[in-house]
Structure formats: C-alpha cells, structure tokens
Write a structure and sequence with these properties.
Shape: globular
Strand content: 15-25%
Order of helices and strands: EHEHEHEHEEHEHEHH
Helix content: 25-40%
Bound molecules: D-xylitol-5-phosphate, zinc ion
Structural class: alpha/beta
Strand order of the largest sheet: 1-8-7-6-5-4-3-2
Oligomer: single chain
CATH architecture: Alpha-Beta Barrel
C-alpha cells in the first residue's frame, strides 16, 4: 500500500500535535520526523523529547529520519510504541550492516537514506536486510527545495532490484514532492512519499493531503 508521510519540518511547532492530527484526519499515513544535528547537515531541528511527547497524542506511526552523525548512539532514544521506522544515512555510517542490525534488534524497522550523489551500489550487501530505502531527492537539511530529477532513476533501479531479487524494502522519497510530480514519482515505484512544504505550506492542509493521496494512487 502506498503511504503519505507529511514531514513536520514545515509544520507550525507551536501547535504541532494539532497540525499532525489535521493530516491524520485527512487520511495521511505516517508522521515523518526530520532529526538534524547541525553537523551531518547544516541545520538543527528536534530530538527524542519531541518524538516522545507526540507518542500517544497522535495516532499515526512515526517515520524517523536521522540526519545525524553517530546514529548508533542515538537511534535507541527514538523508540516509542509508535515508532515504525528509524532511518540512518549511509554517508553517516561506517559499519552500516551493524547499524541496521542493531536497529532491527530494537524491534523497529531499519531504513537507509541516500544523499542525491550517493550511488545505489553502496547498498548492494544490505538491500536484503533493509526495511526501507529512502531516496533523498534534495540535499538534506532544509524543506522547500527543488526536486532533483535523477532521483527517479534511483527509484526505478531500486524497484527493479526488488522485483528481481524478492527484497522486502519499501521505497521512500523525500524532498521536493508536490502535486506536480507525485504521480510520476509514484509510477517510478515509490511506496512512501514524504511531503513537507507541499502539505503544511498549503492554505487548506486537509484538502492538500487528500489531493496528494489521490494523485499518488496508480490504477
Ligand atoms: C530535508 C528533509 C525533508 C523535508 C522535505 O532534509 O529530510 O523531509 O522536510 O521538505 P519538502 O517536502 O518541503 O521538500
Ligand atoms: Zn526527511
């Protein structure tokens, strides 16, 4: 099933839970949480306290995107009863196999994110164990950037590899997704669509979520 994951990076943090609930009521499926440390990426956002405080206040599962150095150290802190995915950046992991393995042992799904310039080949030996591959379609760090078209090639290759080898990962795309491109991206094989500014920057968030979902469906 295809799922929409609104990124709270573009939400109004003074009423975060309410903003998330609006997307939930409109049919969104996951809460995408962008964690940035000011070192791996040139921006600082939120940490485990915010994620923990949302648990039980909203219903959707959490999709935690760690844009941080040393994810091994901090991944366990993002565990809540609602955490579905903890995703780390391949570029931040020296021992990616071990990192993914330890996330899975925490009882949540393990994802790997790739920056736009990172080749898919780097993941060859972990594709079998990954629960999610997150294709960054902008350089990580900020919302509201323009979609990088070459990420579609990466998505198509991931979809083909999955079909050939029977892998179980879901393909997620993150960055520059909106009404104009969500259908094409969906056709390329994406399962989970992150959208920040397209959702929370809309005048009518509820209507925007419904439009995005209807365009991501493929018949
Ligand atoms: C960027 C973050 C994204 C961001 C997407 O580093 O990982 O999740 O919120 O924002 P939009 O949808 O505005 O490109
Ligand atoms: Zn993200």
């Amino acid at each position: 099933m295809k799922r929409l994951a609104p990124s709270i990076l573009s939400a109004d943090f003074s009423c975060l839970a309410e903003q998330i609930k609006t997307t939930e009521r409109a049919g969104a499926h996951l809460v995408h949480v962008d964690v940035m440390d000011g070192s791996f990426v040139p921006n600082i956002t939120i940490g485990p306290l915010v994620v923990k405080s949302l648990a039980g206040k909203v219903n959707m599962p959490f999709d935690v995107h760690l844009m941080i150095e040393d994810p091994d150290k901090y991944a366990p802190e993002f565990l809540t009863p609602q955490t579905e995915f903890v995703t780390v950046h391949a570029e931040a992991c020296r021992h990616l196999y071990r990192t993914l393995d330890s996330i899975k042992k925490l009882g949540v799904k393990a994802g790997v994110a790739l920056n736009p310039a990172t080749p898919l080949g780097n993941l060859e030996y972990v594709l079998e164990m990954a629960d999610q591959i997150l294709v960054m379609s902008v350089e990580p760090g900020f919302g509201g950037q323009k979609f990088i078209p070459s990420s579609l090639k990466k998505v198509r290759e991931l979809a083909a590899l999955r079909a050939e080898n029977g892998y179980g990962y879901e393909i997620e795309i993150d960055g520059g997704i909106g009404l104009d491109n969500i259908h094409e991206v969906s056709e390329a094989g994406v399962d989970i669509f992150v959208a920040g500014s397209a959702v929370f920057g809309a005048e009518d968030v509820d209507e925007r979520v419904r439009e995005l979902i209807s365009r991501m469906e493929i018949n």
